[in-house]
Every structure is written in C-alpha cells, then in structure tokens.
C-alpha cells in the first residue's frame, strides 16, 4: 500500500528553478550541500523529484553519467515525514528507468539507512569510504613534528591552472575508470584551491581539489602515486584553509587513512561504496579521495 502511494507521485526532471526547494529538503535532512553544488549537479546530470499535493518536493534522486559506461547515483533524499513510505525505492526505480542508466554500470556511496534499500535494488558492497573531518591547524601542528615525512618533501606543489585541466582530467579518468571531464571542469571552477604535484622532472604526478561546503573544505578528488604525495597536497591546502577539512578516503588506502587520526582528523562515518552487476573500474590504487559522496 505504501509503495502504491509512492508510485502515485511521478518523478520529473528538476531544473535550476527548483534549487531553493531542493536546498530546503537538504537543510531539513541536515546535509551540507550549497547552492553551487546543486547548480553543478543540474548541469552535468539528471535530477529527479516528486512533489506532494501542494507542490512541495518530498523525494529526489540524481544520476551523473561518466562517459558511456559508468554513472553515479546520488542525492537520494526523502523528507523525514515521508520516509518509510516507499519513496526511496520509487526514486531508485525512476533512475534505473532513465535513458542515462541504460547500458551503464551504476555505482553509489550509500548511507547506513539506505544500504538495505540499495541491496534490494541489486547493488553489492564493493568497498567502504572512510569519512574524516579535521582541523587544518591541528594537521599543521602534528605534521610539523621533526620525524614526520612531510618535512622531506619529494615533490613540488603549485596551484592548478586552466591549461592543466586536459592532463588532470585524463589522470582522473585513468584512476576512476571513466571520463567525467565536464563535471571536473565545473568542480575546478567551484574550488577554492586546486593543487598540482610535480616530480623533479616537472611532470604532473598528482592533484587535489578543495571545494567549499558551508564551513568545510571538501578535499577531493585526489590522485597521487603514493601516500606521501597525498599528505603533502593536504598540507598545502591546510596551510591556506580557514575551514574545517573533510576528506573521504577509500578504505583500501590504508597508508593514508591509517595516519589521519594521528594528524588531528576524526572518523565520522564508514559508508559502503556499492555497485550494480559489476566491479569498480580504473586504477583505484592511485585514487586517494573521492570527489564527493554524491559523485562516488
């Protein structure tokens, strides 16, 4: 009966005109996305929403294509007063029926509450993401100890520029296993800091974006050859940021997330990375932090 009630509301594509209503839903759930996040999402993917009899958005979901073979599902939201009424499953069904989903492997980062639903929809846990918050001041203090490896940097760090994007997007595509160039360019434009790591020969070997979300800087995506380079880029941002730092690290990257608690970061959550009927593509050993939970 509850599922029938949810299906009675059709899911339609949302537009930039709906940003205030989506933001109202976000704030009701205590999420941290800002207007610019939503503007980017609406440009690069499809954002579906269902409304109640008064026209109020009560449930949403988004689908972001990466090339022709992979897509990420995110922003699965249901108003608290409408939860456990079948809307979550209804929006997943609507996304799976969308033309963007056809022929693509689908992936997502689940919440603890959403994991059982996604399993029912055919998704399997392929790994986990360790979500950390930390103070830049604490990171700088603790990483300045005499025996810490950041005191002997092996790479040169600099700001990313527009003429770096083609190279960096290619590195992101190799690590992720799919090209999301349009999304990357928009996130680069949105970022407060974008960092390049170069080796002694001047070759680009890593990068990271730091995107503002309310009182935080979200660090990711980050591609690097090793954890030392990853930590050096985090320090570069910590030296400049006046916001709390958030970083979402794949659980396989133990060389990084194993050190973060000793550098002033605290583990907030450990959500599952899930995929439907496939395995995650790409060279994930070089992928040290994800772009965001919405973009898997």
Account of the 3D structure:
- With 296 residues, this protein is an alpha+beta fold.
- 30% of the residues lie in helices and 31% in strands.
- Strands 1, 2, 3, 4, 5, 6, 7, 8, 9, 10, 11, 12, 13 and 14 form a 14-stranded mixed β-sheet that branches.
- Helix 3 runs antiparallel to helix 8.
- The relative contact order is 0.17.
Number of helices: 10
Rg from Cα: 19 Å
Q: Give me the strand/helix succession.
A: HEHHEEEHEHEHEHHEEEHEHEEE
Whole-Å distance between the termini?
Answer: 33 Å
Strand composition percent = 25-35%
Number of strands: 14
Biggest sheet character: 14 strands, mixed
Q: What structural class do you assign from the helix and strand content? A: alpha+beta
Mean pLDDT: 93
Uncertain runs are none
Which geometry do the CA atoms define?
Answer: globular
Helix content: 25-40%
Element layout with pairings:
Elements: H1 2-7, E1 12-13, H2 19-29, H3 35-44, E2 46-51, E3 57-66, E4 70-78, H4 87-97, E5 105-109, H5 115-120, E6 123-134, H6 136-143, E7 156-159, H7 165-176, H8 181-190, E8 193-198, E9 204-213, E10 216-223, H9 227-238, E11 244-250, H10 254-257, E12 265-269, E13 272-276, E14 287-289
Parallel strand pairs: 4-5, 10-11
Antiparallel strand pairs: 1-2, 2-3, 3-4, 5-13, 6-11, 6-12, 6-13, 7-8, 8-9, 9-10, 10-14
